[in-house]
Design goal:
By secondary structure, the chain is mainly beta. The protein has one domain: Pnp Oxidase, Chain A (Roll). About 15% of the residues lie in helices and about 50% in strands. The strands form 3 sheets. It has a 7-stranded antiparallel sheet with strand order 3-2-6-9-10-5-4. Strands 1-11-12 form a 3-stranded antiparallel sheet, with no helix packed on it. A two-stranded antiparallel sheet has the order 7-8. InterPro entries: Flavin_Rdtase-like_dom, NADH-dep_flavin_reductase, Split_barrel_FMN-bd.
């Protein structure tokens, strides 16, 4: 899978179950009408259950300058949630999910379905709003390296 180039995103949530954010490369558009996307979360982390419990999430597509955030939210440095979120400039989406202001694009989603496949839970969200920086580059992960496009 290391040869599968992928856009780098931060999946974030907040609500009654608490805040959670992690780096993901397994996400994609599902439908344009209604706008829907999916994110794959590893079931080995009990904290990932917060996405389902909160009923919302944001998918923040990282810009080329956000490698430090990608590394931190991937677990590098062993930072807790508060320390990770302290590294970025955040706002709250309509759903309450954290939106990264430097993201190339951020999708605010209402969780509409989940499904477990092998080691991952697929969460599916209807996009309620977007915030975009049209001139931002994108961060891509390929062969255990970060690249800006």
């Amino acid at each position: 899978m290391r040869r599968f180039a992928a856009g780098v995103c931060l999946a974030t949530t907040d609500g009654p179950a608490g805040a959670r954010g992690l780096t993901v490369t397994s996400s994609c558009s599902v439908s344009a009408d209604p706008p829907t996307l999916l994110v794959c979360l590893n079931t080995s982390s009990p904290q990932n259950q917060r996405f389902e419990a909160n009923g919302c999430f944001a998918l923040n597509v990282l810009s080329g300058g956000d490698e430090q955030l990608a590394r931190a939210f991937a677990g590098e440095g062993g930072l807790d949630a508060d320390q990770r979120f302290a590294l970025g400039d955040w706002s709250k989406a309509e759903t309450g999910a954290p939106i990264l202001r430097s993201a190339a694009v951020a999708f605010d989603c209402r969780l509409i379905d989940t499904k477990i496949v092998a080691t991952h839970r697929i969460i599916i969200g209807e996009v309620l709003a977007i915030a975009a920086q049209m001139e931002a580059s994108s961060l891509v992960y390929l062969d255990q390296s970060w690249h800006s496009l």
